Amino acid sequence: MTPFRLLSVGAALALGAAVVPVTIAAATSKAPAAVCVPADSDHRHDEAAPDCVSAAVSMDRLPAVGETATVKIRLGTQVPVASARLAVRLPATLRLDAAGTGLSAPRAVGLDQVAEQTFPLPTGGRTVTLKVTALAAGPAQVEADLTDAGAPDQARSAHGTTVFTVGDLPGTSVAGVAGTDSAAVDAGTARPATNGHSVPLVGTAPRSPAARSATAAPGQICATGQFTVADKTGAWLAGRNIPVSVIGKTTSSASSQTYATGLTGAADGKYALCFTSPVTTMYSVQVKFTSDSSVWRVTNNAGQSTYTVTTAAKSNVPSGTDQNFGTTSPTSTYMRGWHAFDTMNLLWAIRASGTNCWTARETATCTKITLHWQPGSTDGTYFDPDGRYVAFEDADPDSEHLVLHEAGHHFMDLLYNRWWPVFDCPDPHYLTEKSGPTCAWTEGFANAITGYAKGDGMFYWPDGESVNLMSTKPFDPSKPASHTNIEDGDLVECRVAGSLIDLWRNVDNGPAATFDLMRRYTSSTFREHFNDDRPLTGMNTSATARNLVYTHTIDYRTTTPPGTGIANGGFESGTANWTITGGVVGNWPTYPAQQGSWYAWMGGNGVVNTDTLSQQIAVPSAGTTTLTYHLRIATKETGTTAYDTFKVQIVDGSTTTTLGTFSNANAGTGYVLRSASLNNYRGRTVTLRFVSVEDSSLTTDFLLDTIALSTT
Questions:
Q1: Residue 506: how many CB atoms within 10 A of its CB?
Q2: Which of 114, 195, 340, 708 is the most exposed place for a label (fewest CB within 10 A)?
Q3: Of the given ranges (240-254, 263-277, 597-611), which has the lowest mean pLDDT?
Q4: 31-35, 169-173, 209-213, 680-684, range with the lowest pLDDT
């Protein structure tokens, strides 16, 4: 199956039999994408927007502590960029010498330092050379981010990086980062988080941490403290619901044991864990944090190792005491992974499962949402429904919206119990432009998760570029589609996302009813979800709801609940709304559905047999109404004689009219779109009926799917 990538905010999850990437990149009229080539176009997992610019970071050596290396940042572009902004980011454990480069003096951003410069970038590109000196051993990363300051666009942004581990002695530094464990950065370096998750403390001086209060009982030892993470801007945030354990040794020769476990606070990232000390004085006590909870986790790209942060040990700890471990943060190099872990709290808060798992399908042992990330990663951005994990590139966690989008695909996978509609996303596809009906639904749902969980109705990329998902301004066809000129209708994921968010905010009292509906019924499109499936659980499809959706340019105002139009025309809700003879509706693996996984299989018995499938419909009184359906015929008969037949009929009172007749002589290898006019039945309620008739030998299979009425 294809991984779901976030394309111009447009790609979709992986659906179907191949990996379906989802890479979010947005289309605008400012970037001449036609002259750009897709990134990694030979990589089956990638479905990224075209890249017009590039950034690559290289070093002439890997410096040990005290040594200096020359860094070259090679910037390329396929189109002239009048105002290119370069931001160079590196940890405080490296000293930047930008003399002669034009870069600004570095400024502190969280545990990093950032130097910037803006200049014109011609198509010939440019190389920026600077020097860095290693000040301390451990993992390090030099990053270069290139953006078009005059015309922000995903096609005109690039991220380059090099990751290495600084050694203490010359010759001991190595490329890459070994392991996922890191020593804690304590309060002397990190700034404490506020109780409110999103209030930044950038620029404030370090303060003594306010740990969760604890008073050790006689014979007990209590460990207190707080975990914090920094976002891209350097704002310090509480690290919430992070598994924390207290480990210790009774003597110098004893093995380490875990004495207490718990989670950091769901609001403030604080903890207070107490245990009964087995000795009067513990030889050592320390605290360890792990990016692996019972419901979500962050691992390296291989999915084998989670991240850990371990504080320095306190020695000779007497029982009956509180031990304040202060404010703990991960090192700069691993910060993004921990930020991604914390972001998952936003999705957890809206899951509305009624259980301690993601959906009501599970109550005890929960399926985890797994995020793959590691420093310098180029494997992303997508959800892989085969491996059941989300993959992120190096800078992706800089956008909480992006983390939630991909996790939203994983969440949909859990709601649908691993069922996915047939993938129909074009390559590339964009948040603001028309794609396939399934693409718009799956991507729109993931974007709705993002905008609702964040509470802002927006989508932000890691470079800061954004799209307002709640835009209700109709498309101006005289101008190209862009972030502010969004195409109309339910084939556009931005419009689907905005509709869902508005329904959750103003009609449904939150997304809980939608999640419950998705757990019970699968939908291939937003149209099916709204018109066919919402009525199945009593969700609101009144004029109020339809008018609200219409403000997002999706017009379902002329569609009423089942009985008008075609209800459950894709059979994804099983036999709902249909009258059948025989078990003609199912999701058999023998043949694929035209869309989704359910379809009607009529005939195929090889004996004298008649199958019927019917539904009462109301034909609009005005306009031109057309019936469309997809029919595939497979047969073991030979020749052109019609032995087995399939008819499309309208029953109007006592009159039956055949609109189309097909037979084994019309057999082919795939579905064929068929249509018939219903203008003779304007303003009437009639019965649409499909009938297959077989003779006594040799089978003919009539496969029917995706039945719809359209009125113009």
A1: 11
A2: 195
A3: 597-611
A4: 31-35
Q: Pull the structure tokens for residue 38.
A: 């897709």
Identify whether the C-beta of residue 649 lies closer than 8 Å to the C-beta of residue 613: no
Return the structure tokens found at 66.
């005290």
Which tokens is 220 given? 């007990």
Inter-residue contact 571 to 598 (CB < 8 Å): yes
Cite the beta strand spans of 539-624 per DSSP E.
579-580, 585-586, 599-603, 609-618
**How many whole angstroms separate alpha carbon 323 and alpha carbon 560?**
65
Distances (CA, A) of 700 to 581, 600, 606, 609: 17, 14, 7, 11
Strand partners, 132: 69, 96
Neighbours of 304 (CB within 10 A): 8
Q: Which residue in 486, 483, 180 sits closest to 306, CA to CA?
A: 180
Q: What is the sign, positive or negative, of the torsion defined by CA atoms of 597, 602, 605, 611?
A: positive
How many CB atoms within 10 Å of residue 166? Answer: 23
For helices 437-454 and 493-506, give the axis angle rounded to 10 degrees.
50
Q: Which residue has the tokens 């709601």?
A: 415
| 348: enclosing H helix or E strand | helix 335-350
Which SS3 state, helix, strand or coil, does residue 543 take? Answer: helix
Q: Do 637 and 664 form a contact (C-beta atoms < 8 A)? A: yes
Nearest to 115 by CA among 132, 138, 139: 132
Name the residues annotated as catalytic.
406
Q: Are 492 and 432 in contact (CB under 8 A)?
A: yes
| 653-709 pLDDT tens trace | 999 999 999 999 999 999 999 999 999 999 899 999 999 999 999 999 999 999 998
Structure tokens at 166: 């600084």
| C-alpha closest to that of 406 among 358, 352, 356, 369 | 369
Distance CA(207)–CA(187), nearest Å, equals 7
Rounded distance, CA 562 to CA 423, Å?
Answer: 27
Residue 153, C-beta contacts closer than 8 angstroms, at least 6 positions apart: 26, 28, 30, 31, 465
Q: What is the pTM of this model?
A: 0.76
